[in-house]
Amino acid sequence: MRGYSVIKKRPDFLAANRGKRYATPGFVLLVKDRQDETTDIRLGITITKKVGNAVVRNRMRRRFRALAQEMLGQNGKAGADHILIGRDGGIERDFDALRSDMAKALGKLCV
After folding, report:
1. Sign, Cα dihedral of 7, 10, 16, 22
2. C-alpha Rg value of the chain to the nearest Å
3. Phi and psi, residue 24, nearest 5°
4. Fewer CB under 10 Å: which end of the chain, C or N?
5. How far apart are CA 69 and CA 110, in angstroms?
6. What pLDDT tens digit does each residue of the chain (111 aa) get?
7. In whole angstroms, what is the distance from residue 12 CA to residue 7 CA?
8. What's the pTM?
């Protein structure tokens, strides 16, 4: 079971763009506090066509979902939106390196 809900609407992605950001070689993490009464953790994933074809983008999306399922429940900020933006180096990056990057990014942004 995942510890987050999914962001699907464009205005939610745009609102999260005004939050804090942390860039790694594989992804950029945006975290924006929603300022409402709910404590749900929400996740959005976006990967542009510049990264690769549909197969590459879907593989990267699956890796990001596995990473979020593993880490967001205990390390994510309650009541905040988390956006993962895929970068070019993310698909070749080792999953352990992505995990350590995610831990470092969540540690910096979700204090």
Report:
1. positive
2. 13
3. -125, 170
4. N
5. 16
6. 577 899 999 999 999 999 999 999 999 999 999 888 888 899 999 999 999 999 999 999 999 999 999 999 888 999 999 999 999 988 889 999 999 999 999 999 987
7. 7
8. 0.90
